[in-house]
Write a sequence for this structure.
């Protein structure tokens, strides 16, 4: 009862009822349902909630929340440092992030206002009224003109064509640029004016909003002469918001979904947050440093009370306790002291690390888009970055999982061969020639097909009934649309020609269909379009009209599509085409065995195959078919299941007509790219929906499989036990077989069985293979394989590449998703992390950009922790000399500006421009990628080395300055001695210079900007300190630093101490680098040596003897002789011509020795 009265909210019931033009029932009990308005809201904040919401989101980050707590502690208790030291950096970080997010949201508000304020025309009171898009309500009749976008999801009521059809393009939704035909039901198609539509008594019942762009279930009920006529509604009746009207003057439609309930808005789903391995390591390091902080604070608190156990230090004569202090709780005092030490040492946690990392990722991502090597001139597409959070993850990829069609191949189909009635034909020089014949032997008297367009209409060729029926089936069983250069939108778009008009162009959502229709056109059977209810073809110039009765749409489960037609003779025909596995089991006549053999032969050649069949219906059979289809299509509940049952009932007892073979060419440099990835230590898996033979053939041609590779198969498994036994056999064979490389082929059915309970064994077999090919894969199976791989015990980093909507789930599941800007729409691109125009660009994206991003951010993270250890450790050591009184070593301004100003820019510039080797070297030597694999530069060993180095440098800073000033040494010309602020400033000065020069030592690629920020940061520190300590600032409560810096640098001993301490800190690091570089060099370091000496062409040698021995540089020889390790025979190498290699990359990529003849 409540539903009838309209009380149910929009999403409480499974369906919604929309009254066209809002003509509600006249009885007094009906209350209209409330639907969403038509405003699009992509913004995140409003003026009122921006501050609280943004602050809440920012303080959910652990580091920000930690510094907030520290700041509050400084406000509540007596701490040794001013609250400004924590508050100002925190305020800076929060403000910068808020400004960035606020600006981005303002842009979203601006875009929303433009969309919501766009003018539209709606039918009100029998006339057209202009209003704004946001004012459209569910039930309004909207008029849309040619080349305009639809402002809401509309059910098409009528168009300027009598047939009620219109053409649209959904490029902005899924990237498909082909024209799609949508149609209105006959009862509303005649209402072509606003006045007629105003008088229309009808309602739409449909499903509640859902995100699937290609699914719509509904029915339209029209009242005519007190009679209700019910018509089914499907995707072909729904015009989606964001799509554009083409080749049609105007249409009228009723709004059924508005605003944020439109399918376009429901697809505005935020991508799942992906975290890189570097970010996870960074959080681990942060926890370790938090432990160090707690340890230092606890140790200092305990030592303070141990020291104060002596009464002379507990209450010295110059600092007597008050009565309140004497009577206060010891536990509260301990907690207060612990918090005070926590505040004193809190700068060991680098708050500015997060801001610097975000800026580095954001700014660094522009380099991908600016890279001209990733620009595809033919399509005018450049590389696109959808998320900058995963830049460094491009340098850690271990597995690439790629689609085949459109990713490895061009997705540009060319008809090559076909099988008709058991006879195989191939296209040679514009003619269709039977197998075994050549073009020269084919004369005019041949009874076989000729397809040269100039001969088609000059001579009427004799065709057998089977051949003619096959060509007609191919030219009629499709969803191809036709575009003409001079289309006026009134339906007079077909030129009066013989069917081969030069102005006619085919558009199809599937490149296979377009290739086949174009092929039949060359053979003389030309599809000329759809007029009204008829599909028209010209068979060698003779016009034939077939009435289109029903279209049985393609779906991934059936893997076929069909059309029901009425031939000119009145016979009801079903034409169907699809994969051989979905057609042959239902065929009962025709050359089944020969066709099956031909299909396998086509697949072995790498051709994409489709099987074509037909069925004839008697009048009684067709009536039953029509009834079942009508019932299924008008059902509001379980429509998909009922349609599947009806389709299965229709598509059986088929007569096999033949098969087609279409070639999909490999993209340029696919083989070279796959070889480069393999040499880089990356395994490539191909996941495709194609049949096994086609997929294997393409894998061999693109270098994914090698001819010498041992190919293993897990296919056509019938049961769980059979699949398990086969997996065990394969695992045993891999262990026992001495063949170096194995390849594995898996089909979709066997994969489903393997994943039921043998995931571990299946992954063990897969990982033992060099290459894996999964064929006949459903989209969700692709995602399942990716998930299974990335959650395996080794937790490898995965990258998925695809170009179509069926690859979206795989792309979203992988650690890094790459979308190919292909011909299967832009859904893959829109849901990817990065998008490129061609598969060949993947090599540079990983080997160059990934390598550089990783080494930059790895150094950035560890350097930040290093310089903060250098910063705070002297503060901790100072407590041993001030009786743990919590006296600060540095001035508050220095505490505040150390991470913000004095040391921030050099590391930021380093993280944007650093290159260990030139990009062309990285691309030509893929094995260099192995040096950074498995997060090697952020391993715990490397992190501890940086940390220990930080502690060591801090000890040098503190005790070097202490030795200079201890025992009351006077360093001033007037005999005065330095105080504690002078000592702290000296430590701080040495520290700023040392950590800056340390980064300079790490820099390999110097630009003018590196020089500017490196030396400029040191100069800025000196200039700032002169001004800060040389002027009495009126707004400062106390100014302990007045004249301190000037007096400090007036002493020659101080300058000498600075130089000695800095050199003492950095020389051990230099020596370590030299030793490691010559005794245990990495491939990258060897490439640097060769890069620096252009006269040497060998990869890992300084020069070559004629005998093939490598001579070290004199430094390396001296070091190895000193250590007793030098052995010329140890490093001799030879090269076998049979070994695989990448250009200019021999000696790095082989483990064998190098012969002198190849030097």
């Amino acid at each position: 009862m409540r539903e009838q009265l309209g009380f149910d909210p929009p999403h409480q019931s499974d369906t919604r009822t929309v009254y066209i033009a809002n003509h509600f029932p006249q009885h007094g009990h009906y209350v209209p349902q409330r639907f969403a308005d038509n405003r699009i809201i992509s913004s995140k904040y409003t003026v009122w909630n921006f501050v609280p919401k943004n602050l809440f989101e920012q303080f959910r980050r652990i580091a920000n929340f930690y510094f907030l707590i520290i700041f509050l502690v400084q406000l509540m208790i007596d701490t040794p440092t001013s609250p400004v030291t924590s508050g100002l950096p925190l305020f800076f970080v929060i403000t910068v992030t808020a400004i960035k997010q606020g600006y981005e949201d303002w842009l979203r508000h601006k875009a929303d206002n433009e969309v919501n304020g766009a003018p539209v025309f709606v039918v009100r009171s029998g006339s057209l009224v202009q209003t704004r898009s946001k004012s459209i309500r569910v039930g309004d009749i909207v008029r849309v003109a040619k080349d305009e976008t639809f402002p809401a999801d509309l059910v098409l009521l009528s168009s300027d064509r009598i047939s009620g059809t219109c053409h649209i393009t959904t490029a902005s939704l899924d990237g498909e640029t082909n024209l799609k035909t949508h149609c209105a039901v006959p009862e509303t198609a005649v209402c072509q004016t606003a006045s007629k539509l105003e008088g229309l008594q009808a309602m739409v019942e449909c499903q509640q909003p859902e995100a699937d762009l290609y699914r719509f279930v509904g029915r339209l009920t029209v009242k005519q002469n007190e009679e209700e006529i019910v018509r089914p509604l499907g995707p072909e009746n729904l015009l989606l918001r964001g799509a554009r009207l083409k080749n049609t003057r105007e249409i009228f439609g009723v709004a059924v979904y508005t605003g944020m309930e439109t399918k376009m808005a429901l697809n505005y789903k935020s991508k799942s947050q992906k975290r890189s391995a570097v970010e996870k390591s960074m959080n681990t390091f942060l926890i370790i440093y938090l432990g160090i902080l707690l340890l230092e604070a606890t140790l200092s608190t305990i030592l303070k009370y141990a020291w104060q156990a002596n009464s002379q230090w507990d209450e010295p004569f110059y600092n007597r306790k008050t009565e309140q202090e004497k009577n206060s709780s010891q536990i509260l005092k301990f907690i207060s002291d612990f918090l005070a030490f926590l505040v004193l040492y809190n700068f060991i946690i680098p708050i500015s690390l997060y801001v610097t990392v975000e800026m580095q990722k954001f700014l660094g991502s522009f380099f991908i888009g600016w890279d001209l090597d990733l620009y595809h001139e033919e399509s005018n597409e450049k590389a696109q970055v959808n998320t900058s959070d995963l830049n460094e993850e491009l340098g850690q990829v271990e597995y690439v999982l790629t689609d085949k069609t459109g990713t490895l191949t061009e997705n540009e189909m060319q008809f090559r061969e076909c099988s008709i009635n058991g006879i195989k034909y191939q296209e040679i020089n514009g003619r269709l020639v039977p197998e075994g014949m050549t073009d020269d032997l084919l004369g005019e008297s041949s009874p076989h097909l000729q397809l040269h367009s100039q001969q088609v209409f000059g001579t009427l060729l004799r065709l057998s009934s089977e051949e003619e029926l096959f060509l007609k089936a191919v030219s009629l069983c499709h969803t191809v649309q036709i575009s003409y250069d001079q289309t006026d939108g009134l339906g007079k778009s077909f030129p009066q020609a013989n069917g081969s008009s030069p102005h006619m162009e085919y558009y199809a959502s599937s490149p296979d269909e377009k290739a086949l229709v174009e092929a039949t056109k060359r053979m003389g059977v030309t599809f000329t379009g759809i007029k009204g209810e008829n599909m028209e073809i010209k068979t060698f110039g003779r016009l034939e009209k077939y009435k289109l009765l029903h279209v049985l749409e393609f779906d991934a489960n059936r893997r076929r599509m069909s059309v029901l037609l009425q031939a000119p003779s009145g016979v009801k025909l079903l034409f169907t085409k699809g994969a051989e596995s979905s057609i042959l089991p239902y065929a009962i006549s025709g050359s089944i065995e020969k066709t099956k053999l031909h299909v396998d032969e086509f697949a072995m050649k790498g051709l994409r195959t489709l099987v074509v069949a037909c069925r004839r219906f008697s009048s009684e059979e067709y009536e039953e078919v029509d009834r079942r289809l009508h019932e299924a299509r008008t059902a509001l509940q379980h429509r998909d299941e009922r349609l599947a049952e009806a389709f299965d009932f229709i598509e059986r007892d088929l007569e096999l007509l033949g098969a087609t073979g279409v070639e999909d060419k490999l993209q340029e440099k696919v083989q070279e790219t796959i070889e480069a990835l393999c040499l880089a230590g990356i395994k490539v898996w191909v996941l495709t929906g194609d049949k096994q033979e086609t997929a294997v053939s393409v894998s061999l041609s693109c270098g994914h499989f090698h001819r010498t590779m041992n190919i293993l198969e897990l296919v056509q498994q019938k049961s769980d036990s059979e699949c398990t036994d086969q997996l065990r056999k394969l695992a045993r064979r891999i262990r026992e077989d001495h063949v170096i490389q194995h390849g594995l082929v898996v089909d979709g059915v066997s994969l489903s069985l393997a994943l039921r309970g043998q995931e571990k064994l299946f992954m063990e077999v897969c990982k033992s293979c060099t290459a894996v090919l999964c064929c006949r894969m459903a989209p969700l199976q692709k995602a399942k394989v990716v998930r299974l791989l990335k959650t395996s015990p080794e937790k490898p980093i995965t990258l998925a590449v695809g170009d179509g909507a069926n690859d979206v789930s795989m792309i979203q599941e992988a650690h890094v998703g790459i979308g190919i800007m292909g011909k299967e729409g832009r859904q893959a691109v829109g849901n990817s992390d990065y998008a490129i125009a061609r598969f060949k660009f993947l090599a540079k994206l990983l080997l160059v950009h990934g390598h550089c991003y990783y080494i930059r951010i790895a150094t950035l993270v560890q350097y930040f922790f290093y310089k903060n250890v250098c910063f705070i450790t002297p503060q901790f050591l100072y407590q041993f000399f001030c009786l743990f009184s919590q006296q600060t070593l540095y001035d508050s301004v220095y505490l505040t500006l150390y991470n913000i100003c004095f040391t921030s820019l050099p590391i930021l510039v380093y993280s944007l421009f650093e290159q260990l080797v030139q990009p062309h070297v990285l691309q030509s030597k893929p094995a260099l990628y192995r040096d950074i694999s498995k997060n090697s530069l952020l391993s715990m060993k490397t992190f501890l080395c940086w940390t220990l180095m930080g502690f060591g440098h801090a000890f040098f800073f503190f005790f070097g300055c202490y030795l200079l000033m201890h025992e009351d040494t006077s360093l001033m010309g007037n005999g005065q001695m330095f105080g504690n602020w002078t000592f702290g400033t000296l430590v701080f000065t040495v520290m700023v210079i040392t950590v800056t020069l340390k980064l300079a030592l790490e820099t390999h690629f110097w630009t003018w900007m590196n020089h500017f920020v490196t030396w400029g940061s040191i100069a800025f520190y000196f200039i700032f300190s002169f001004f800060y300590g040389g002027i009495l600032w009126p707004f400062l409560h106390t100014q302990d630093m007045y004249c301190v810096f000037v007096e400090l640098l007036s002493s020659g001993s101080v300058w000498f101490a600075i130089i000695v301490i800095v050199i003492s800190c950095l020389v051990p690091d230099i020596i370590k680098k030299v030793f490691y570089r010559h005794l245990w060099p990495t491939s990258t370091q060897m490439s640097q040596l060769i890069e620096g000496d252009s006269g040497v062409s060998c990869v890992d040698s300084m020069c070559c003897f004629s005998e093939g021995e490598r001579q070290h540089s004199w430094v390396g020889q001296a070091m190895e002789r000193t250590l007793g390790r030098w052995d010329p025979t140890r490093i001799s190498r030879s090269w076998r011509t049979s070994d695989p290699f990448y250009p200019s990359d021999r000696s790095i990529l082989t483990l064998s020795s190098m012969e002198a003849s190849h030097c």
User: Anything to note?
Assistant: Residues 855 and 937 are 7 Å apart (CA to CA).
